[in-house]
Design brief:
119 residues; single chain; mainly alpha
Length: 119
Amino acid sequence: MSKAKGVSKANEKLSAHEWQVRHDAACAIVARKYCDMFEFWRDCRYKPCRSARRCSGDQGACLQSRWQSVPYDVGVAAQMRMAAETPPNANGFTFGAHHYAPDSLCLHDPKNQKKRAKS
C-alpha cells in the first residue's frame, strides 16, 4: 500500500508551538541526563533526588543554577559523551539536543522562566 495523500513524519509541517514543545521535551531529557552525569543529586536539597540517586526535580533549574560549579574539562568531556550517546534512531529534536553544550540547553517551559517585573 502506498501513501497517496498521506504526509510522512519527515515532511510533516509543525506549528511554531508544536515545534517548541518537541524541542523543549528533547532538551529536558538531555538536561536531566547532564544533571545525572554531574551527580548533582548528591547534594541536592530535594530529597527525592538524593533517594533515587538521580535527578527527580526540575532539571532545567538545577542545571542552570549549578552548571557554573562544573570544571571546564569535565563539562567538555560530558558534552562529548552526550553527543556519543545520541540514540541511533533519534529524531531531529533529540539529535540536536544531544549535541548542545550543557549551558546551551534552553528550556522554554514557563515554570522554568523567571517572571519579569512589571514596569
